[in-house]
What does this fold into?
Amino acid sequence: MDRGIGNLDALYREVILDHHRHPRNFGAVTNPTGFSEGYNPLCGDRIEISFRESDGKLMTECSFRGEGCSICMASASMMTEEVIGKSLPAVQEIIDGFRALLKGEECPLAVEGDLESLVGVRAFPVRIKCALLPWTTLHNALLAKKETP
It folds into this structure.
């Protein structure tokens, strides 16, 4: 066994556990401009995503609440860190790229930092939905915002 790969897997597990134990941006945004709820009936993960934008261009806040497995909660924590400060079109590109990456499709997104630790979830197909639930819920929040006059 390659010790480098084993050490890398251990590091990725630690990153996921850190985000699960100490989630970033956990809570609800006050007076959000976007909101959605997500639920995975197969495992019971539940999540709410709320965000606020400024001038219809920039995501200034993004938070989540919910309960679920460590992968789902860590993914939500990492996602909020990734999208805050980005333009809404860039947020959608990040969502699309991350979803493609976890589904094993070609991904134009450069996955770096903590998000890189979630790539290993692809080896466990039943857990992919856990990692994607926050991203799908944010996507739905963006769609709901566009539908609101």
Notes: Residues 125-147 form the longest helix (23 residues).
